[in-house]
């Protein structure tokens, strides 16, 4: 008789990390120590990753266009994986950027509606990027377009994670 029970995504993630760490320490002579990041810190990380990563598209002199496209798609996919991990393991508290007074603060928060919006964004944006690679092949200033396209992904995630109207206005 099989006993079925719900498995929490965090438990799967933890077991995967432990197994990977065991395999790496058995194969390599180095010691790997895990980095503990507060769960609420993943909210600004999901916003800043595409924004900071987009400047490399513009600053690096790419020898081949395909290398630049692979970098950009990897950036989109890494951000989407981070967003989906947030959706499956929703942080309980809001990330407060700046506190002014009373209820007035810049904060990032993941609630029900923002989960729907962020899920759609992180699924559709990398797919739309694949279309834009072919569309922009013959255009001038392709690097500038892609830099702003990636920045827009981060800013749109910021709008999705905004905890109040003041934070949404800032994005």
Topology:
Elements: H1 9-27, H2 42-59, H3 65-88, E1 95-101, E2 104-108, H4 112-135, H5 142-161, H6 165-170
Antiparallel strand pairs: 1-2
| Gyration radius, in Å | 19 Å
Measured by DSSP, the beta-strand proportion falls in 5-15%
Largest sheet, spatial ordering of strands: 1-2
> Averaging pLDDT over every residue, what do you get?
79
Total of helices: 6
The dominant shape is: globular
Number of strands: 2
- Tell me the distance between the termini: 54 Å
Q: Which structural class matches the secondary elements?
A: mainly alpha
Describe the structure.
- With 171 residues, the chain is mostly helical.
- Helices cover 65% and strands 7% of the residues.
- It contains six helices and two strands, in the order αααββααα.
- The protein has helices at 9-27, 42-59, 65-88, 112-135, 142-161, 165-170, and strands spanning 95-101, 104-108.
- Strands 1-2 form a two-stranded antiparallel sheet.
- Helix 4 runs antiparallel to helix 5 (142-161).
- The longest helix has 24 residues, at 65-88.
- 20% of the residues are buried.
- The model has no long low-confidence stretch (mean pLDDT 79).
Name a few traits of the molecule.
about 170 residues, mainly alpha, two-stranded antiparallel sheet, 6 helices, 2 strands, globular
